[in-house]
Amino acid sequence: MEGINTVELAVFTAFFVIVTALGFGAARWRRADNLMHLDEWGLGGRSFGTWITWFLIGGDIYTAYTFVAVPALVFGAGAAGFFAVPYTVVVYPLIFLVVIRLWSVSHVRGFVTPADFVRSRFDSPTLALLVAITGIVATMPYIALQLVGIEAVLKTMGVTGELPIIVAFLILAVYTYSSGLRAPALIAFVKDILIYLTIIVAVIVIPTKLGGWDVIFGAAEEKFDLAGTGGLLLPGTGQVQYATLALGSALALFLYPHSITGVLAAKGRGTLQKNMSLLPIYSLALGFIALLGYMAIAAGTQPVDGDGNTIVPALFQQMFPSWFAGVAFAAVGIGALVPAAIMSIAAANLFTRNIYKEYLRKDATPTQEAKVAKLASLAVKVGAVAAIIFIDPQFSIDLQLIGGAIILQTLPSVGIGLYTRWMHRGALIAGWTAGMLTALWALYSVQRVGPGGVVVREHFGGSAFSLGKLGFDTTTTVYAGFVALLVNLLVTVVATFVLRAMKVDDGVDGTADTDYTAEREDPSVRDLPDPLASAPGRTAASVGEEPERG
Amino acid sequence: MSSPANPGGEPGPGVRRRAEDLAPRRSDKSPWNWLLLLPIALPLLVPLYNRAEPELFGWPFFYWVQLTFVLVGVLTTSLVFRAHQRGKKG
Question: What pLDDT is stored for residue A547 in this prediction?
């Protein structure tokens, strides 16, 4: 093949081989008694300390798609693309207070997924099923988008065709299968070293080459003025969108099953809280990564084949010697593998716990459960690869957009449910349905307008929902998922009043108030290896008194 | 986990009482938590920072100030974390 940059490809491949070896070796790392148990495989034994948690959650949030898509957005639209920074500022205090309660209750009650929690808290397998399906549907396109990240890098190196992606994902699939959550935790370490190295070099070398930051911002301003769209600052009508998108994305982030998997794998509340002040280091990096979009404008970088996602790889290729560009590409490529692995594990957990065991095979043993989870994670990855190969990648991007808005609809059950059980289980189902429909309708109605006010795409053109569509006399836009969440909350509250007035049974809370603040040292908090085999006093209580289900 | 044969770990009423015996009653409420409102609210008040001046090292205000919000987040979460740790010991 012609046009392949062999030095870049050689460096990229070398890192990929190292990471693969690590992935397979991970099964032996911090090994517990039995990897054939779902907790062991899917939550890494629930015993990750501060540093590993930092790498793992960091790998969850800052994915290859982020590295590739955020600067691409800034390159095309300017200030609006910078929302990723406030989004990752808002998210940590939220976790610090709220999601930490999920850690406690899950460790007391043995929940592996958000749907497990909802089932027990609201005594509703139906609501749990809805939460599980929402989680799986929202996660699938997210995995597919990681492939878009790898594809952008490969394309820039001149590698075309689908085979490399299939090979990369096959390797990923096999080592996740054998090592579980340990594999991405270990690989995240390599990924982060490469990412930080790349960013530090990029923010020193590129602005120096281009003549300073004012030149970079100046070039961007000139481009946006000329194009008539985008800008260095937000337009007046885009400010609400900016704020609601940041808040909505932050709320959605920790409803995603893969983030919850990362959180639950932490050793204790202290580990998590400490992480909330350490994780923002990534946000600083993200701010610089976003500005790579402006650097590309100033450098006159052109995307490969008109594919906007290749803008950052193309900039690296233009600015760095080949060997270092190879390192940077490896950072992005490996950055795709970490979240893809965690996401497929999380989706597999949801399927196994909340669909397979709940509806298909109630008497499954832990070994069977782990086996099904592994197979499900394979299926999820095959599905993601198939989606990229057979369907237009734009479709994955649309689905990802929808995914963020629909996962937000589980906020009342999963998020607010951590504080109060006031909402009626029937009302939560009604609210979820209303929110879901609103989200789909709102996103469907969003047009993408190109230069000169021409409509480029009729539907799913973005997430900025125009309030004018609701009859308001304004051109202000709001994040579509946020509108849907408001509808969801409203319906939930009204329906709760109605159902309570009608005295409809709302089940029994399977959790206790003290569960939500339990610390690692508490006797009620379970750690792995699984207490089934030991500590007979405690497990007898939960096994022996297991109520009838069905 | 409570019991693998039991997704959701749903216990009967008997277990519920047991768990309450086991987990000490404590509260995660603290006046320090109010500090965390700062990093949540600041980034959402877009009109306050959607401007170009004053610039810093060639960066428009909009960009550099949002990076300082990151530092506000780090500072407040560390402070609240320390307060929680002290509260636990005391």
Answer: 37
User: How do residues A182-219 score in pLDDT, each as one tens digit?
Assistant: 777 777 778 888 888 888 898 889 998 888 898 999 99
Angle at A322 between CA A320 and CA A324, to 5 degrees: 60
Helix or strand holding residue A479 (H, E): strand A477-479
A515 contacts in chain B (CB < 8 Å): 19, 23
CA distance A524 to A528: 13
pLDDT at A453: 63
Q: How far apart are CA A348 and CA A353, in angstroms?
A: 9
Of A422, A409, A435, A441, nearest in space to A491 by CA: A435
Q: What is the pLDDT of residue A40?
A: 57
- Using the structure block, give the residue that is written with the tokens 């996103």: A443
Predicted local confidence at residue A263, as pLDDT: 83
Chain B residues 4-33 within an 8 A CB cutoff of chain A: 4-16, 18-20, 22-28, 33
Q: Do B44 and A90 touch (CB under 8 A)?
A: yes
Residue A493 has pLDDT above 90, yes or no: yes
Average pLDDT over residues A235-264: 85
Least confident of A1-15, A18-32, A116-130, B40-54: A18-32
Q: By C-alpha distance, which of A440, A446, A450 is closest to A460? A: A446
- Nearest C-alpha neighbor of A252 from the set A125, A376, A139: A139
Helix-, strand-, coil-residue percentages of chain A, each rounded to 5? 75, 5, 20
Name beta bridge partners: A48: A266
Spatial separation of the C-alpha atoms in residues A390 and A376, rounded to whole Å: 20
Residues 6+ apart with CB under 8 A from B90: none
ipTM for this prediction: 0.77
Residue of B nearest to A273 (CA): B81
* A366 contacts on B by Cβ (under 8 Å): 4
Q: How far apart are CA A197 and CA A453, in angstroms?
A: 41
Token reading at A10: 């050689």
Classify the phi-psi angles of A179: left when phi > 0, otherwise alpha if psi is within -120 to 50, otherwise beta: alpha
Task: Tell me the three state secondary structure of residue A150.
Answer: helix
A546 touches chain B (CB under 8 A): yes
What pTM was computed for the model?
A: 0.81
For the residues A102-116, what does the mean pLDDT come to? 86
User: Distances in Å between the alpha carbon of A424 and those of A34, A138, A355, A501?
Assistant: 39, 25, 22, 11
Radius of gyration over every alpha carbon of chain A, rounded to an integer in angstroms: 23
Going by the DSSP 8-state scheme, the letter that residue A521 receives in this structure is: T
A97, A509, A515 member nearest B33 (Cβ): A97
Cβ burial of A305 (10 Å; 0-12, 13-18, 19+) is: exposed
Residue A43: pLDDT band (50, 70, 90) is: low
